[in-house]
Amino acid sequence: MNTGFQFSKEQFNQLFPFFLLIDRNMRIVSSGTSIAKMYGAVNGKQFSAFFEVLRPEIEHDRFEAFLEIREQLIIIRDNKAAGQLLRGQVNFMAEQDCLLFVGSPWFNTIDALKNWRLTLHDFAPHDPMVDLLHVLKTQEMATDDIKTILQTIEKQRNDLQRLSLVTEQTVNAVVITNAAGEIEWANKSFEQITGYTLDEIQGRKPGSFLQGRDTDPETTVYMQQQMLKGEPFRCEILNYKKDGRPYWANLQGQPLRDKNGKIIQHFAIHEDITRQKELEAAFEEQRQFYEYILNNIPADIVVFNQHHQFLYVSPSAIKNPELRKWIIGKTNEEYFVFRGKPSGIASQRQRQFEIMLETGRQTTWVEEMPAADGSLRYMHRNMFPVKDDDGNIKLVIGYGVNITELKQIQFELEISKQKTEEL
Question: Quick one: which of 102, 142, 110, 118 has its CA closest to 36?
Fold first, then answer.
């Protein structure tokens, strides 16, 4: 395959295993190895036989329609019963006179990945989906480990020998201090995470060597106050390794008491969540990028939850930034009451929303709204349900386009037609 890049076909497949190359007849002329694993032989067949474009809404069987959305984020859905989503973008390969889609499928769980007989090796190493699936699995395992450890502490808090056996085997760091907060014992994972050996830290307070320049002082005060009150604590904190490198830790601590209720020790689980924080930052950057795109689309765009409450409103829909901030979490009815708008329009939108929930399909209607000058403004509105893997509606995307000029042209054409017929 001539990709237009200085890569072999094998190298291109390693970088983009879910690619599709589509000619002007909307026929798939080449595809990635992972696409073939999911859908079998697709080369030589029509794009529409396997896929449809979910967002943005276009004529998915027309080559020119794809040219208009190139280099944008697009979501395509397969025509199978599973309705698997693939996220990516389309570029025009001038040398081949073809469209190139590069992206990857979107999964929420490891089980969904297995249902397609895929493994992490079927994704490109740079694909963020790989890291997301790793994080989901790691968090699930870590949460179970922590619950088990805390239950053991509650039942056998005085049995330090058995506690030591459990904590030595966990991937998270475990620290035990005396009542004054000075370290008595730490497991091997603590040394692996921080770089400090037990001999170096015995008798010292963890904050004296782990906290640094960018550690949040409010977090340290919170932990100190909880320990003084003899209460458990849980927080995220920026610490520093022995070599000076910062890392994020999720801390869970609680006091250990004797049979008389007197605090004799403190116990803390110390989980390194640096990678999770990096992924959260990357996803937040991506979210801001997509929000920037939505904010600059010349159409009214809103996102609702299942209860018709606003989650997002574009500047084209509501120009006032304070009002856009206020409306989040409010219903359409509350917005119309607040702005003194006609209740009939709010009722019409509610009916369309209910129809969309009942049918599970997109609803479309033309809305008449009075403008400030007394004239009528016509909006072509849509509500589109976004479903999870089980077919349950999770979000609703609403968008509208001003068609007042089009309506005026239609009105003028109708008058002209009537005059012609009268002659």
Answer: 118
The pLDDT of 104-126, averaged and rounded, is 79
Contact in structure between 54 and 85 (CB atoms under 8 Å): yes
Residue with tokens 């979000």: 395
- pLDDT digit string (tens) for 81-103? 568 888 888 888 888 899 888 88
Work out the average pLDDT over 55-79: 83
Residues recorded for the chain: 423
Residue 317 near residue 300, CB atoms below 8 Å: yes
Can you name the residues that pair with 393 across neighbouring β-strands?
Answer: 387
Tell me how far apart the alpha carbons of residues 235 and 97 are, in angstroms, rounded to a whole number: 55
Distance CA 258, CA 201 (A): 25
Q: Can you tell me the distance from the alpha carbon of 96 to that of 287, in angstroms, rounded to the nearest whole number? A: 33
pLDDT in tens, 365-402: 998 888 777 788 888 889 999 999 899 999 999 988 88
What tokens does 329 get?
């979490």
For the chain, give the longest Cα–Cα distance.
106
Looking at the predicted structure, is the pLDDT value of residue 157 above 60? Answer: no
Residue 188: partners with Cβ closer than 8 Å, 6 or more residues away: 168
Tokens coding 266? 């403190």
What are the angstrom distances between the C-alpha of 198 and each of 178, 250, 407? Answer: 15, 20, 78
Q: CA 270 → CA 119, 156, 173, 193, 380, distances in Å?
A: 30, 20, 5, 9, 54
Q: Rounded to 5 degrees, what are φ and ψ at 278?
A: -65, -40
For position 5, what pLDDT does the model report? 47
Contacts of 171 (CB under 8 A, 6+ apart): 142, 145, 189
Query: Residue 27 gets which letter from DSSP?
Result: B
Q: 101 with 90: CB under 8 angstroms?
A: yes
Alpha helices in 250-305 (DSSP H): 274-295
> Could you tell me which residues come within 8 angstroms of residue 337 by beta carbon, excluding any fewer than 6 positions away?
343
Stretch 119-129: mean pLDDT, rounded? 78
Tokens in use for 394? 């999770």
Q: Coil, strand or helix: which one is 197?
A: coil
